[in-house]
Design a protein that fits this description.
Distance between the termini of chain C: 92 Å
Number of helices of chain C: 4
Oligomer: heterotrimer
Shape of chain B: globular
CATH class of chain B: Mainly Alpha
Order of helices and strands of chain B: EEEHHHHHEEHHHHHEEEHHH
Largest sheet of chain B: 3 strands, antiparallel
Helix content of chain B: 40-55%
Strand content of chain B: 5-15%
CATH topology of chain B: Cytochrome-c3 Hydrogenase, chain B
Radius of gyration of chain C: 24 Å
Structural class of chain B: alpha+beta
Number of helices of chain B: 13
Largest interface: A-B, 35 and 36 residues
Strand order of the largest sheet of chain B: 1-2-3
Strand order of the largest sheet of chain C: 2-3-5
Helix content of chain C: 10-25%
Chains: A alpha/beta (122), B alpha+beta (359), C alpha+beta (127)
Number of strands of chain B: 8
Number of strands of chain C: 5
CATH architecture of chain B: Orthogonal Bundle
Largest sheet of chain C: 3 strands, antiparallel
Radius of gyration of chain B: 21 Å
Chain lengths: 122, 359, 127
């Protein structure tokens, strides 16, 4: 099975530059996913694919970090960024179609993010 | 300056198998802009992974969707096996491939039926589903469930198919192939169908690649992405073409799916001829510790399962990125500039499976 | 350009039997492997509660003191995970689906298993 994949951790400030590099080399956006790894710490994986080789960029943020949007380079990324905001509470700035929290409406705001974990501890 | 009105499409609409909401901005009868909105069927599967052991989560992962359920279960199992370094027996790989291709056949036949329904051809809808019944009968005889199979587990498959039954399945496929040829002739040659689908919802090759289209939506515009060519399960030992078409309209997407029906029948017959004897599962001990992006080809496109474990029985994260989620931006692009009466046909041509999208 | 492509299929379906079954007058299609409902044999259950832990829908509740095994038929998804993991093989899958009822509730079964008498087992290791 030839499913090669690499994960490259980078700083939030270098995100736009690296994504632009992938765009110029002809990679397509596969997915943007978020994982909760600590009390107020999230890992965001940006996956890019070309000819079945998967390259991932990983940034580690908190709920208050402002993450720049990549919709300037990949128009279709608004789906993932809105979902990330609605479920985890990550602040993404500059999305081309910003639903402002109404993309996925849930009974508890940011269900996978910080607020629910604090309620469970109580 | 013509007045713009907003017409809501969905969440309940006769052509939609699952609820999605689109706000169509119209000028006269032409759609100018589309604002999609999902969230009607969000069940919070990704939160449930913290409360169910990784061996039991297969049943939850399978129930993400009712149409493409087998491949969800198989991809999850393969992801866990890659993290833990388990090698499943060859017979299990071949059985997973055979069931995946049957799942693809039933999904494409279901889609052909709904597609005919979207432009009002009810008789064709019923005939497509009549053939689909024969596929579901085979699924029920070999796994016990018509749409939710429950036959994958971490380490292999739960039930075996006897060689006599496999030979019978291979013979039945010849008569199913003949019925499907009659059916696809109507979809591709009939004048009324061509009038409703030619040059409707055009997606150019550049747009398809950069907006992230996958599956038949991308292959209908000339982008040859088929994850089966990476060779997971038994696909590395089977020979099959990647079906593409260059026009990018609804007719092309229908053509790609019709041709994939016959490719799937060929793959199943090849796999039945080549399947080796042996055990169908291995014992699994321990817990997954690590992460992996497992990708597979669903009937609708590329599926990504991201799994992360930390050495306990409960996984840290299971992120499922289904093909319909990434086909929504191309849908928005396709709908701009079309007529209101063509909206159901275009929405259905990306094969929306919204229950997968929202998990 | 084709007209009347559908004629052959339409004529054939008009002249042949319907593809649908007149359910409930005729019974639904069943195969030997079909997953219908769980059957519990109380005389073999050793109250290990593995089935309760393995159930993904949390439909089984076992009480060792009250000797009762209850299942919520509406929560059960017929995955047969309990059937595969039961060590004393007291659970099995029946192909007939649960009949519809008008009220939700759990079904309670009593466990009638009696452990074989102890003295015979203790004597062997001493010898």
């Amino acid at each position: 099975m030839k499913q090669e994949q690499t994960i490259i951790p980078i700083e939030v400030g270098r995100l736009i530059g690296s994504v632009e590099q992938f765009r110029n080399e002809g990679y397509r956006l596969a997915q943007i996913g978020c994982t909760k790894v600590g009390d107020n710490s999230f890992e965001i994986n940006y996956s890019f694919d070309k000819d079945f080789v998967l390259q991932n960029l990983r940034i580690t943020v908190t709920a208050e970090t402002e993450v720049p949007s990549i919709t300037g380079m990949y128009w279709g990324a608004f789906v993932y960024e809105n979902e990330m905001h609605d479920l985890f509470g990550i602040q993404v700035k500059g999305i081309n179609i910003d639903f402002k929290g109404t993309f996925i409406r849930t009974a508890i705001r940011y269900p996978f993010g910080v607020s629910v974990a604090k309620e469970e501890k109580k | 300056m013509t007045k713009q009105i907003i017409v809501p499409f969905g969440p309940q609409h006769p052509v939609l198998p699952e609820p999605i909401h689109l706000d169509l901005v119209l000028e006269d009868e032409k759609v100018v802009d589309v604002i999609p909105s999902i969230g009607y069927i969000h069940r919070g599967f990704e939160k449930l992974v913290e409360k169910r052991e990784f061996t039991e989560y297969v049943f939850i992962a399978e129930r993400t969707c009712g149409i493409c359920s087998f491949i969800h279960g198989a991809t999850y199992c393969q992801g866990i096996e890659q993290i833990m370094g388990i090698q499943v027996p060859e017979r299990a790989d071949y059985l997973r491939t055979i069931w995946s291709e049957y799942s693809r056949l039933h999904s494409h036949l279901l889609w052909l039926g709904l597609y005919a329904d979207s432009f009002g051809f009810e008789n064709l809808f019923m005939n497509a589903w009549r053939i689909r019944e024969r596929i579901l009968d085979v699924m029920e005889q070999t796994t016990g469930g018509r749409v939710i199979q429950g036959s994958c587990k971490v380490g292999g498959v739960r039930k075996d198919i006897s060689n006599a039954k496999l030979a019978e399945m291979s013979r039945d496929l010849d008569s199913i192939r003949k019925e499907m040829e009659e059916l696809t002739t109507v979809f591709l040659k009939d004048d009324t169908v061509i009038h409703r689908t030619r040059n409707v919802g055009v997606l150019s090759r550049q747009d398809a690649y950069h907006l992230g289209a996958v599956g038949p939506t991308a292959r209908g515009s000339g982008v040859a992405i088929d994850l089966r060519k990476t060779g997971y399960a038994a696909y590395s030992e089977l020979d099959f073409p990647v079906v593409t078409d260059s026009c990018g309209d609804c007719y092309s997407r229908c053509l790609v799916r019709c041709k994939e029906l016959f490719t799937s029948v060929d793959i199943i017959q090849q796999a039945i001829a080549k399947i080796p004897d042996g055990p169908v599962d291995v014992k699994v001990t321990g817990a997954p510790n690590g992460e992996f992006f497992m990708r597979a080809e669903q009937p609708r496109g590329e599926l990504v399962h991201y799994l992360k474990g930390n050495g306990t029985k409960f996984l840290v994260r299971s992120r499922i990125r289904t093909p319909t989620l990434t086909n929504i931006p191309p849908l928005v692009k396709m709908l701009q500039g079309c007529d209101l009466a063509d909206v159901p046909v275009i929405v259905l041509s990306i094969d929306p499976c919204i229950s997968c999208t929202e998990r | 350009m084709g007209f009347f492509e559908m004629t052959k299929t339409a004529l054939r379906t008009v002249l042949s039997r319907p593809a649908t079954i007149l359910y409930p007058a005729q019974a639904a299609k069943r195969t030997p492997l079909t997953r219908g409902h769980i059957v519990f044999d109380g005389s073999r259950c050793i109250s290990c509660s593995i089935c309760q832990r393995k159930c993904p829908a949390q439909a089984i509740v076992l009480s060792k003191e009250a000797k009762s095994w209850q299942i919520d038929r509406f929560r059960c998804v017929m995955c047969s995970s309990c059937v595969d993991t039961c060590p004393s093989k007291c659970l099995s899958m029946d192909p007939v689906y649960t009949a519809p009822t008008s009220a939700k509730g759990v079904e309670v079964f009593t466990i009638t298993y009696v452990k074989p008498p102890k003295p015979e087992k203790k004597e062997e290791p001493k010898q």
